[in-house]
Amino acid sequence: MTIERTVPEERSPESGRPVGFRVQSGIPPKERGRAAALYARALARDMAPLVGGGTNARRGATWVRHAMRPESALVILDKRGSVAALAGLSFGEGGFLRPDRRQMRRIWGRLGGQMRWWRWQGWPAGPETAALVIDGIAVAEQHRRRGFGRALVQAAEAYARATGRPALRAEIAANNDAAIRFWSQLGFQPVARLHGARLLFPRIPADVIVMERPVGTAPVP
Ligand SMILES: CC(C)(COP(=O)(O)OP(=O)(O)OC[C@H]1O[C@@H](n2cnc3c(N)ncnc32)[C@H](O)[C@@H]1OP(=O)(O)O)[C@@H](O)C(=O)NCCC(=O)NCCS
C-alpha cells in the first residue's frame, strides 16, 4: 500500500510548491538497521527495561533489528530515502516484535538476556481483538510535529478499512503523556488499563493504556 501525502509547511526551495512524502508498507531492506535504531530510541523510555539507554541503546537497536517483522510496518522515508518515521502493525497473531530468547542471550549475555526475556513475558498483553493494533509508532526527532505520526495513523486506518477491521488500537505506556495526547488528538479513546508484572523491575511503571478508535466513522482527523 502506498499513500501519497503532503506536508503543507514543507516547500521546495526551487518551486515553492509543497513537497510530498509517501507512507509505504514494509521497511526496505537497506533501511532496516536505521528503522530498528529509530524504533528502539523513540520507545526506549517505554521499553527501558528491555532496550535501555546509553551504552545499551546499540544493543537495544540490535535486538529490535532481530525481533521486528519488517513487513508488518508502515514507514515514511525522507528525501534521501532514509526512514523518518515508522509504525509497527500487529494483526492479532503476534506483534511487530517477535523476540527470541536465544537471540536475547546472545545480545545481553546469559543473565541479562534471560532477565529481559522474563520481562518480555511479563509485559501486559492487550485483550484479544479484531482491531488493527498499531504496535509502537516512532517519528525521528527532527521530523516531529509535522504530521508524520498522523499520516502513519491515517494510512493504518485506510489499511484497516480495506481489510475489514472494525477499529484501530494502540497500547501506550501509562506514563507517556505526550503519546496519550497524540492518540487523543487523533480521536482515540481509552478502553482499558493493563497492569504489567512488576516482579523484576518494581520501580518501573509497567501499566499500559489501551486506546481505540472505530474504523468506519469519520476518518482520522
Ligand atoms: C508521539 C509521536 C509519534 C508523534 O509524532 P508526530 O509526527 O510528531 O505527530 P504529529 O505531528 O502527526 O501530531 C499530530 C497531533 O498530535 C498532537 N501531538 C503530537 N505530539 C505531541 C506532543 N509531544 N505533545 C502533545 N501533543 C502532541 C498534536 O495535537 C499534533 O497536532 P499539532 O502539531 O497540529 O498540534 C512522536 O512524538 C514520537 O515518535 N514520540 C516518541 C515515541 C512515542 O512515544 N511513541 C508513541 C508510543 S506508542
From TrEMBL:
<keyword id="KW-0012">Acyltransferase</keyword>
<dbReference type="GO" id="GO:0016746">
    <property type="term" value="F:acyltransferase activity"/>
</dbReference>
<feature type="domain" description="N-acetyltransferase">
    <location>
        <begin position="37"/>
        <end position="216"/>
    </location>
</feature>
<feature type="region of interest" description="Disordered">
    <location>
        <begin position="1"/>
        <end position="26"/>
    </location>
</feature>
<protein>
    <submittedName>
        <fullName>GNAT family N-acetyltransferase</fullName>
        <ecNumber>2.3.-.-</ecNumber>
    </submittedName>
</protein>
<dbReference type="InterPro" id="IPR016181">
    <property type="entry name" value="Acyl_CoA_acyltransferase"/>
</dbReference>
<dbReference type="Pfam" id="PF00583">
    <property type="entry name" value="Acetyltransf_1"/>
</dbReference>
<feature type="compositionally biased region" description="Basic and acidic residues">
    <location>
        <begin position="1"/>
        <end position="14"/>
    </location>
</feature>
<keyword id="KW-0808">Transferase</keyword>
<dbReference type="InterPro" id="IPR000182">
    <property type="entry name" value="GNAT_dom"/>
</dbReference>
